[in-house]
From TrEMBL, chains A, B, C, D:
This is Peptidase M20. It comes from Formimonas warabiya. The lineage of its organism: Bacteria, Bacillati, Bacillota, Clostridia, Eubacteriales. It holds the Pfam family Peptidase_M20. InterPro entries: Amidohydrolase, Bact_exopeptidase_dim_dom, Peptidase_M20, Peptidase_M20/M20A_hydrolases, Peptidase_M20_dimer. The keyword tRNA processing does not apply. The Mn(2+) ion enhances activity.
Length: 443, 443, 443, 443
């Protein structure tokens, strides 16, 4: 079976590259993936998947870090201009750009695969040394770039979708494909989980191209030590006053923010695990001689566990409230991103490793890495695990032109077909009809 | 008349010195003036004054900065051992050590004179170079010393009391003598004013030996620019925790206090007048490796006007509350001293200057000084002024051994008789029967 | 003579309005007054004044708050496009836009008049209710507006220049006209004083339209209690680091700035006079999850005296250095504006009042107001006073459409001729040939 | 052999209890263990050990947190009064209270055992419920109490010393017994290591009664994850000034300390391991109305590794220096305790476990615990390990009356004999002549 599958996948390799480059050319940041999602939806529908889009896939009230309404409108128009189906875009109004697609292949367990689609707020370089530019698929959208590989993830998702249909008869169970918006800033998973994306799932798998697997033909079968994290936007609003004539009439938002920033960093370490707190930006005031009436901060907390991160966020809330009280200013705290901690299931890691070994695709198999960073795949995985299922997050090796989120980021497109084949093998092994001999003939 | 009065006063000069040295030997800090007040009361009663003591002179609920009950008890016992009348001491239970004495000399205006009686929390030096020690009248009460001259004030008060009785027939009006506890830390005046000490008064006079009048035979006739001030004791109470094992379980009172201290000093300047804020002491924590569960601060605010000081105190309250909120600790703010701003009445200043000139007692007469500090005489004076009366606060020149509140402080006792004579002349001129010729014969 | 002068002045009233509106239409912020200064220079040269421009009028090394070279270049081009003489503009390269013009009218004292020329960084409203827009002379330069009246000051200066020539024969002494750039932010005077603008002057006069004189025909003859002030731009430069992976590798400029901001506001009050400190703006950081590598603050100090302001600036320097040390970051402190305190000369105030009375121009004459704000006219005035001369700063009444620096600011143009006449009368009285009868015939 | 040894040990059990109670009755805090060390030295000499005391055992310049000279003098006198040999006490002048004793039992490896001797700054309760009081051996030294079990450690050390001599002929190697002062506050080990206490050692063993082994007959064979730590005393010295009259003349030590405290807690977390920072106490100022001229803080840092702790201490130094600069105050930083991180040697843990198993003394054997706290045994152990040797730190189970450092702390004295036997078995197994059959007859 391996050979045959491999052959099939290789057949679609050009298509995978084409998908990837198309997504790369029209990158879309979190909650604005109107074109990407419309394209994916069209293909999934064509392939016969039952597709939930918009409000059926995303719980509006659980979306985090959504751009303002006007900005979303602009992106909807842009997407249509860039070839998106207007009716599908309309369905995603408000940024509801998530997709849940399902294919029922008979009675059996449900396997979910999750792919993220969003790009980064980075200007792609127009330089010869940068392959996407040199080969003509660099970003058409100023200030936005696929610098993390999610263009590849989305392409892999479509490749898997296409192949699954081909081997449908060999399976007995359900395939669920989840295309998630807003992974950057951990903004999107929560709203899809809240809409049921992880319900009824027995196995969930996610993967990232590259990261700690920076060589081709390398596979990390499971990832853990995902940090829980929260992203908070805080603003203080005071009252301006002339700094010379009547400073006492002012309510100083800048000082409230400065005081908060210091004390936030002084939040006590936690005895049960590591924490992080960063006030990444602080902008306050309007003129040298005016008591500053407003201040804004972008804050990030992390915790080794969800509980520890909650401790951090609660401490942040107290400090912001206290600083506002001190200076008689109003404040607002917005959670614009948040995810929990997580661990891949050891049993599934073992299974993945066995399967991967069988494929002959990899020269190096690593059981597990500690991530020490955040990914909102944990929201899906933890839900599945709580319901008795298993999940794992893999890293699929790829040689990188530069690190993730760097503007020279690029990966080796050979990873695309390799990833599709791996995922198919995993699916076949998890819900295939005859798992023993693992020989499957498809024509 | 002047000559005659002078003669009389000189007669009692030895008595004044004896009073002063007696008070100096048994100094008593604010609200513990049991012995001093008992001695004064006995003499006033003997002289025929109608005397209000204890709850009749002091409003319990308006007392500021009162020592704890047990400490007061200890002082009551000490006072009795040091010769105080036990019954009078009993009447002052709870620290009600103020005295309002009145002598009715017929229909006419009421003139009030105010004298403060309390000593400082200072250890008096046992050194030959220090006259009170050399001449055998230095403090018998460890940790307490008359280092501001209130022993002299009390002696002057008794001298005036004694002389007024002698010249009673020359007067038409009422004389009220107010002996105030707890002037240090501006703690006592409020409670006496609340009990009516300043009611019905037409003229009120207060005086301080020395201060800006540091030469004998110098008189400052009026003082103004008294700063309003508040003295606050602030405590924070958190929860201790092991600093290594579980720091997150602590609620850090030290950090709340440190944060408060910084932000208190950052209270905005006021456009309408000068302000002061000082965290004079901060003591927090119990051990190097325990999250500090308690912290205490002694704070002082000042304002050019009562309103400005109120702005300061309100800001202090907000900052303390905010700092407590930040660190999840409890707090308590105690006002342990407070007084308002004030200005001597220009008309009375002029009158006093004229009278002083007539006495020939002084070689230098200064109309007015700006105080730039605080004295709770303002509580009496402002009440009198609000009711249509006049008040002034004088400084009576005296060569000092060292500055006020220094432990080598001592004044020239010649000032005592001079002060008594000045005050008598003022009284005679304000409510004397024949003011025109100012010649009064007393025998 | 008064009448005659008045007649003459009224004659040129239309010209004054024309000048003012021309300057208003092409407003130029501090050190970019290329067009304004070129226009003024051309007229002064035409009138026969000896004119110093560029490096002869401004000491380059003493200029404060100068825009970057490229920005200056852009403004030079703009100015030429807007009609400035290219050669004169060339002479002012680097922003040296001050002018010192002199007319020698024989042996006698030197009278200097100072006019400021710069506009504000404000967008002028394009609204019918705003007269400059309605009558077609609102700003052609986006983001810049004459919202303080310096357009009027410059016009008055030209009016005076023109009239002085007419009455030249009546005078015996020197007239010096100083046109100053960059008064906003107190940036320009220092560099002109350093170049000798105030040297050899016996009388110096400055004036502001409006301010505390908000009614037509009102004159404030002298101003004092000018606060010394410094404007500081502070930047911190640290090292960025990933906030999750290696926060300890960062050197946090945001925290250095936040810490500095708090402690700056906590600089101790001063016992000898009032102070101000304001961190008006703070901008720091680049992304939520990056240890912030840079921070910038705009700071302002004030002091009741130059010494007190120096105390403030020295304290600022210590705090900035300390905060940088704390966080291992570099810092830079730039003084972008600064001026000393000052007081008008009482004798000159009296003279001005007498002269003003004689003119019949005013219905309300006020001797003196306390300014409580800052104006770098003090740099000229104090130099003159130190050299034995006299100076005063007047406020010439004018009904205002809205307060200074508000974008609806506008003044009553009747003030222009009134001001010219007042200044001429003052000149004639200070260095006129026959001062006794004050009757001068000019034809 | 086990049985025989056991019998012998049981024989001396009463002696062990007697030792322990004697030490308990005369507890001595760090660097004042004059009596304890003199008693131990006398016994060791008597037993035939070669003993180094005073300057031969402790490097004066490496002692941390030594009390002032006068205090040491008082303790020397006290010790003599409490029965210490005056000549030995004299040898320990300056607090050099460490002992290195050695017994040469032939050619072979060197085994070192380390025992700490110091008590805690705690008042022992005089209550019936507290056994040491009830049974008459509670502290005679006010404010000092053995509340951590070091009295037991010292007694065990003497027990081992005595037994080793008995089985001397069975051994081939060297025994070194290290009695360490000042373990509390991690003050003593460094100075003994600097004097060579750990040089030439092949195996080093340390043990603590109780801690995480709180049941009798429980043994933890190895401990790791010792945190590196530093204890710092910081003082700031400024200049006092009257808070009302001339606050600007003060240099505010309280604000420097408050600012430092906040920023110390804001030291960035470390990406490579956990950290701790605690300002445990802060005491500043002298009076409410005086700018505070002095402030003192007790600080503790910890790091998962020695490098991380160094990062913390360096950050502390920068922040203290910066805060002092801010407020123009002087500062002093004293390291009063410090130790490095450490890990027990896995091979030795395994050996200890095997040996312990063979003894039959324990019902529960735990390989390893993570300590997460600090012990300066690491200074010895790490030195031995660097030189190619092995070390381990054990916890020997004992039922406790209350937790360590609590004033009701007490342990089960049955632990004493059990510990002595365990240590002897370890020694015999490490350097015994015939290790195979482990049957040794001693009579």
């Amino acid at each position: 079976m391996n050979v045959k599958l491999k052959g099939l996948v290789q057949e679609i390799e050009p298509l995978l590259v084409q998908y990837r480059r198309n997504f790369h050319k029209y990158p879309e940041a979190g909650w604005t993936e109107f074109r990407t999602a419309a394209k994916i939806t069209e293909i999934l529908l064509e392939l016969g998947y039952s597709v939930k889009l918009g409000a059926d896939a995303v719980s509006k009230s659980d979306m985090l870090g959504v751009p303002p309404e006007e900005e979303l409108k602009i992106h909807m128009n842009r997407a249509v201009k860039q070839g998106a189906n207007p009716e599908l875009v309309k369905e995603m109004e408000g940024g509801l750009t998530g997709i849940i697609a399902e294919l029922n292949c008979g009675e059996g367990p449900t396997v979910a695969l999750r792919f993220d689609m969003d790009a980064n707020d980075i200007d792609e370089p127009k330089e010869e040394k940068h392959r996407p530019f040199r080969e003509g698929f660099s970003s058409e959208n100023p200030g936005v770039m696929h610098a993390c590989g999610h263009d590849g993830h989305a392409a892999i998702g479509l490749g898997v979708a296409r192949m699954i249909v081909k081997i449908k008869d060999l399976l007995q169970g359900k395939i669920r494909l989840i295309f998630q918006p807003g992974e950057e800033g951990v903004r999107g998973a929560k709203a899809m989980v809240a809409r049921g994306a992880a319900d009824g799932v027995d196995y969930i798998l996610g993967a990232h191209i590259g990261f700690q697997a920076t060589k081709n033909r390398q596979l990390i079968c499971g990832t853990g030590h995902f940090l829980a994290t929260s992203k908070l936007d805080v603003s203080f609003t005071g009252i301006p006053a002339h700094a010379g004539a009547a400073p006492e009439e002012g309510h100083n938002a800048l000082l409230a923010a400065a005081c908060a920033a210091l004390n936030l960093h002084a939040i006590s370490r936690h005895g049960k695990g590591s924490t992080r707190i960063t006030v990444g930006t602080l902008n306050a005031g309007q003129a040298r001689n005016v008591i500053p009436p407003h201040a804004e901060m972008k804050i990030e907390t992390r915790g080794e566990t969800t509980e520890i991160n909650e401790y951090m966020v609660n401490s942040v809330r107290d400090i912001i409230a206290g600083a506002a009280k001190m200076y008689g200013v109003d404040y607002e705290i917005k959670i614009v991103g948040e995810t929990i901690s997580g661990e891949s299931s050891p049993e599934l890691i073992t299974k993945v490793k066995d399967i991967a070994q069988g494929t002959g695709l990899f020269t190096e198999l690593i059981d597990y890495v500690s991530f020490g960073a955040s990914e909102d795949f944990t929201a899906f995985m933890t839900t599945v695990q709580k319901n008795g299922g298993q999940g794992t997050y893999m890293m699929i090796g790829s040689q990188l032109a530069s690190g993730h989120h760097d503007y020279y980021f690029d990966f080796d497109e050979a990873t695309l077909a390799c990833s599709v084949e791996l995922l198919l093998e995993i699916v076949v092994n998890l819900i295939g009809k005859c798992q023993e001999d693992r020989i499957i003939n498809i024509t």
